[in-house]
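Whether sequence alone determines local backbone shape is best considered at the level of individual chains. The sequence in question and its structure tokens are set out directly beneath this paragraph.

===
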Amino acid sequence: MTPIRIKKIREILRLTQEDLATILGVTKTTIWRYEDGRGLPGEDVMVRLLSLEYSLKDASELRALKALCGTPEGIAAMAAISTLGSAIFSRSTTVGAAPVGYVEVLNYPAGKVLFSFIEKTCGPSSTNDTATLP
């Protein structure tokens, strides 16, 4: 993951370095180092970045992520999704494997619980653009 790609993810979602740091579970300084080319993400952060990048390619996921990224509560929800996604896929997904989008995580049982939490915290409008859950 190049510094340019990391910065592009952040800019597309209109996130500050601090917001992206919250989502990825790192510090603002760490994000600055990634974007400046002075540091490389570890495997866990790389998987989270790849999932974010993958989500940007799907129009409905992109809309959902932009809606979530627009509020402090949404940023907190994104951090929870990021953590949950890492937990779900850390055993079966490696950096070389195809990443899974953030909204796709919500189709897993633990993701459904998180989806309910996001609706309660951020309101139903925050989840209107997400994939239909079975």
Summary: The CA atoms of residues 50 and 99 lie 6 Å apart. The chain has one domain: 3-126.
